Amino acid sequence: MAERPGQLRRIGGGISQLLEKICGFSRRCVFRVLSMGPLPNHLAFIMDGNRRYAKKRGLEDGSGHKAGFSALMSMLQYCYELGIKYVTIYAFSIDNFRRKPEEVESLMDLMLEKINSLLEKESIVHQYGIRVYFIGNLALLNDQVRAAAEKVMNATAKNSRVVLLVCIAYNSTDEIVQAVKKSCIEASGNYKHGDTESGIEGMDMEKQEKRIQLVEIEENMQMSVAPDPDILIRSSGETRLSNFLLWQTGNSQLCSPAALWPEIGLRHLVWAILNFQRNYSYLEKRKKQL
Amino acid sequence: MLSLLSSLLCLFFLFLISCFFITSHFCFPLSLPKLLGFIKITASRDDDNKRDKGTYVDGEDELQREMMPRHVAVIMDGNRRWAKQAGLLTSQGHEAGAKRLIEFSELCFKLGIHTVSAFAFSTENWGRHKIEVKCLMSLIQHYLKSKIKYFQREETRVSVIGNLTKIPESLLRTIQEIEEATKSYKNKHLILAIDYSGRFDIVRACKSIVKKSEKGLIREDDVDEALIERELLTNCTEFPSPDLLIRTSGEERISNFFLWQLAYTELIFSPVLWPDFDKDKLVEALASYQRRERRFGCRL
């Protein structure tokens, strides 16, 4: 009689392991079918709906973000299994600093915990050989989070299989402003180096214009380490960009599944990719026309 | 038994018939959101005593005056598919599209929207067939020239934004003529994006800033979002950032239209082709916009 609960637990564990293996096998079959068509090279996610999820389930505020993190890990696993090389996520916007201080603090604590966990041996970073970039105005973060982010970036700098770009303290308009500032500094640096003898009045207009042409805004953007996203997925049904990758998503397929971010699953990813494949030949034709 | 079956069948058919009147055509799966929307609208219509009629736009019970967007942008997609479906030429599709734009903007201004901007011709469109491009250019010129008096009568300011270096001289002259003729009007503004690309707009603004910085007119520290916004081509309007962007024909992409300006814009992708995007569809889109919760990154 005393053995029964133990036996039941073992049987339960065995069944769940079997179910996991069946799900994994079915998932790999679905991915093989999807791979018959063109696959996106770069996927971007706006992880919206964590707070609404917590409210819906009657959980305390921070639990929504924790559930969101689990959903993120699953989504990353699916993307890298499918063979998508670049994944970008909108983790924290500069606008989010305007939320309640307690919420911002708890988000920063959660991010510090999760950033540090990326360096653990069992983490997804080591499993898939991910190179991690933290994109954004990192000076706005507290010292601990910034130091942790820089540590992860240095530790994964040699990985080259797949790339994860985490947008933190990020706004697309801020990214463009920083790129312009960098271009201004470079242009004035070039000017000082090249024209010590003649003044600006002595230089002809053509030479001036040519030097400005060389200053490429795009090269100075932080997101230049990755190609433009093929698909942008925003969860929770809202259809707006919220100042995310405005420059880069000009020709991206936009998807807005109604599911809140912690509820996002494989079926939403598959649907987004099928839509991408449907439009792929038309978009390729247009690119060739240019 | 028979009477129970017949009552169930009657109820079922009653449900189907009411759905038939709610949806514009009989389709499976029957649209539950539309059914709920119909019930909500019908219930609210009976409640006349409690509604403050001044809150709503004249003639439109679904649209609240205060929540109307100030700037609506539209990507007019679907002219060629519309023409193909109707068995017409592509040029006739574009003509129907131009006519629809005039009606659309007139309707928007009547509903209290201040600025309407339309993506008439993208930089990428130069890659289309030469004949189609030529036809589009002459269509735009014809419409602008013939509508100068109309815009003056309606006191609507017309602006054209874009690269404009490749367009025919005659069209450029017409654009200058219409901009000059309507520049003094302030309450209604129609912006046409011709040979426009969002990236070109941003690069142009950034180059202008870099040049000014080289000449010592501004310092690097002065460069901020407001400065870049002032340098963009949408600086011709009081409301450069659209509150709402509508793209027709079901495609869900921005296609290099406004990029910077769409940071917080609500996007609506309608499956309807542009020449079919009539008043009902516009009101539906505006009602959907008014139901949205705009948070701008924070909790409201």
TrEMBL record, chain A:
Keywords: Transferase
Assigned EC number: 2.5.1.-
Source organism of this protein record: Cardamine amara subsp. amara
Protein name in the entry: Alkyl transferase
Record-level Gene Ontology MF annotations: transferase activity
Function: Catalyzes cis-prenyl chain elongation to produce the polyprenyl backbone of dolichol, a glycosyl carrier-lipid required for the biosynthesis of several classes of glycoprotein.
Family in the record: Belongs to the UPP synthase family.
SUPFAM superfamilies in UniProt: Undecaprenyl diphosphate synthase
Pfam families in UniProt: Prenyltransf
Cofactor(s) for this UniProt protein: Mg(2+)
EC category name: transferase
Cellular component terms per the entry's GO annotation: cytoplasm
Matches recorded under Gene3D superfamilies: Decaprenyl diphosphate synthase-like
Source taxonomy: Eukaryota, Viridiplantae, Streptophyta, Embryophyta, Tracheophyta
Functional pathway: Protein modification; protein glycosylation
Automatic annotation (TrEMBL), chain B:
InterPro entries (alphabetical): UPP_synth-like, UPP_synth-like_CS, UPP_synth-like_sf
Keyword Nucleotide-binding: no
CDD domains recorded: Cis_IPPS (cd00475)
Pfam families in alphabetical order: Prenyltransf
Cellular component aspect of the GO annotation: cytoplasm
Secretion signal, residue range per the UniProt entry: none
GO molecular function, one term: transferase activity
EC numbers, comma separated: 2.5.1.-
Keyword Magnesium: no
Top-rank taxon, per record: Eukaryota
Pathway: Protein modification; protein glycosylation
Cofactor(s) in the UniProt record: Mg(2+)
Record key words, sorted: Transferase
Function: Catalyzes cis-prenyl chain elongation to produce the polyprenyl backbone of dolichol, a glycosyl carrier-lipid required for the biosynthesis of several classes of glycoprotein.
Family: Belongs to the UPP synthase family.
Name of the protein described by the UniProt record: Alkyl transferase
Lineage of source species: Eukaryota, Viridiplantae, Streptophyta, Embryophyta, Tracheophyta
